[in-house]
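> call design_seq(struct)
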């Protein structure tokens, strides 16, 4: 005899409450095991339970961090001390040697158990660092990759400058690639141009590398494959890549892990995350072989995150600046394609400015629309929207454009005769004030030539000839002169 739902809810209420409580507790127990609740970039970060495992990147610190040369010297000194007979044997060296022999004999499970005992017994001794690393190595060889990742992360937290850092980053990189099913890095020339006329209408296809990969759901548990975590395999892989460039930023795999992460975000359509990762790669690793692809793909993901002329145009400005920088830094790149994309970006900017003009016209604010018309004409004078802005300025009239710093209105074909402007009154000057305007000046005719009369001659009394000599003082008084 079966029990109906009605009987379960009414006759046995305590049983129903117990079942609901058990289901709730089971759900709460599953949540901490999912890595996506510990990932800060995930949408489920707010649902992370307070008792769940703390992420590696929650509280980053630079305490006890050493540079590459310091780590090399520390490793050399430790190996010399461990192998030499002149030094006192290290604490726990005998037990470590015994466990290491089992590891070489490929008895990984037994070796893992002994290395864990060493870690627990010698918590404050140098042998703990090597034993902790060997625990992770045993788990890696057994293909318990999720456990191995946790052990490697614990090693990086307890010993930030561990002498096993290079090998640890290599292991984490291989684990991440395995969980992502051997992904390929996207190249800058593999992508197509973004359609800015209708943003979001279509997604440019990314060429496939020919490998077939299984689709995995984050919340679908894995009970059979021991090489993968129970939940959210792909985000666990991204966490492993993040540990590489976070704990070993100067290592050989730091830029590779960033590029692999950004390529994953690009393929999944997470353009904002890809943009941040590409920016970090350009800023922190200017000598990386992935630098040119980071510039080209950086502009692509910026344009893909653009949502249309009704939204913010910051991504358009940033993408244009980034493309101009790409043309300067990499002259061997496809210059024709980059120039064509720059033209499309400028056209999209002009279209957005014209949308702003139309917005203010719909709000019945012609003076505000006139200001944005001027800005559109100044910033994009050769775009087709600039001609429309000039025509709109001419239609708005003088009463709506007299506040502009410059009037770019298109002149009308039939210009009416304007009245003569008023003249300022200046007394004493002809042609100013209320007086009639002076007639047009005509060129005066030169006067006729007149014959000049000869000058009168000086005559003396009694003489008809003119004076030819001035008398001296010794001479007698000269005769009087008559004109």
């Amino acid at each position: 005899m079966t029990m109906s739902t009605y009987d379960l809810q009414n006759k046995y209420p305590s049983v129903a409450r117990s079942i609901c409580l058990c289901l709730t507790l089971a759900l709460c127990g599953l949540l901490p095991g999912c890595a996506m609740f510990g990932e800060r970039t995930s949408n489920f970060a707010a649902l992370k339970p307070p008792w769940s495992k703390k992420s590696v990147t929650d509280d980053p610190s630079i305490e006890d961090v050493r540079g590459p040369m310091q780590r090399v010297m520390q490793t050399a000194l430790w190996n010399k001390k461990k192998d030499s007979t002149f030094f006192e044997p290290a604490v726990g060296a005998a037990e470590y040697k015994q466990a290491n022999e089992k590891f070489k004999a490929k008895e990984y499970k037994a070796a893992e158990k002994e290395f864990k005992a060493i870690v627990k017994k010698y918590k404050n001794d140098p042998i703990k660092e090597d034993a902790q690393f060997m625990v992770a190595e045993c788990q890696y060889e057994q293909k318990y990759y999720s456990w191995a990742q946790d052990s490697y992360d614990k090693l990086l937290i307890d010993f930030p400058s561990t002498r096993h850092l290079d090998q640890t980053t290599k292991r984490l990189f291989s684990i991440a690639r395995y969980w992502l099913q051997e992904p390929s890095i996207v190249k800058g020339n593999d992508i197509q141009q973004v359609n800015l006329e209708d943003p979001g209408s279509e997604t440019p296809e990314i060429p496939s590398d020919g490998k077939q990969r299984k689709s995995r759901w984050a919340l679908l548990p894995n009970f059979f494959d021991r090489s993968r975590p129970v939940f959210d395999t792909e985000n666990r892989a991204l966490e492993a890549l993040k540990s590489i460039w976070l704990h070993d930023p100067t290592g050989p795999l730091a830029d590779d892990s960033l590029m692999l992460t950004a390529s994953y975000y690009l393929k999944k359509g997470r353009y904002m995350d890809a943009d941040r990762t590409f920016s970090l790669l350009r800023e922190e690793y200017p000598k990386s072989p992935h630098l040119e692809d980071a510039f080209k793909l950086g502009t692509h993901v910026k344009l893909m995150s653009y949502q249309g002329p009704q939204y913010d145009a910051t991504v358009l400005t940033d993408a244009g600046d980034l493309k101009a920088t790409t043309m300067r830094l990499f002259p061997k790149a496809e210059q024709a394609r980059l120039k064509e994309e720059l033209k499309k970006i400028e056209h999209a900017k002009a279209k957005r400015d014209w949308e702003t003009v139309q917005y203010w016209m719909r709000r019945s604010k012609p003076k505000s629309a006139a200001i944005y018309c001027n800005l559109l004409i100044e910033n994009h004078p050769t775009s087709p929207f600039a001609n429309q802005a000039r025509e709109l300025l001419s239609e708005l009239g003088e009463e709506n454009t007299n506040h502009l710093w410059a009037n770019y209105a298109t002149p009308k074909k039939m210009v009416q005769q304007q009245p003569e402007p008023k003249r300022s009154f200046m007394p004493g000057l002809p042609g100013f004030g209320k007086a009639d305007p002076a007639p047009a000046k005509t060129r005066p005719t030169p006067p006729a030539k007149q014959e000049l009369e000869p000058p009168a001659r000086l005559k003396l009394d009694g003489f008809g000839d003119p004076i030819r000599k001035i008398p001296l003082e010794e001479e007698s008084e000269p005769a009087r002169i008559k004109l």
